[in-house]
Design brief:
The structure is a single chain. With about 80 residues, this protein is mainly α. It has a domain of about 30 residues. Helix content is about 45%, strand content about 0%.
Length: about 80
């Protein structure tokens, strides 16, 4: 966060700010807020890699059976493999 600026969430990263607001309601602290103008330029944290169409179809099937998104399944599998 910039010096001289206050943060209701007291978070030190954009991810932590997101997590804070996922669990808190602005209505509860509305009186602490002030009007603000800002420019936002969020850089994606995602990287895209081509996947064979057959693998993609299988991935979707497995993800549906597990009740999770294909993106989550890929990330879980890759994290598992990297941790080995």
């Amino acid at each position: 966060m910039n010096k001289g600026k206050s943060s209701i969430s007291k978070a030190s990263s954009y991810q932590m700010i997101g997590e804070y607001w996922d669990n808190h309601d602005l209505a509860d602290i509305w009186e602490q807020t002030e009007p603000l103008e800002l420019d936002v330029n969020i850089q994606s944290e995602r990287k895209y890699y081509p996947i064979d169409s057959y693998i993609s179809e299988r991935l979707i099937e497995i993800a549906i059976k597990r009740g999770i998104s294909p993106e989550t399944l890929v990330n879980l599998w890759l994290q598992e493999k990297i941790s080995q």
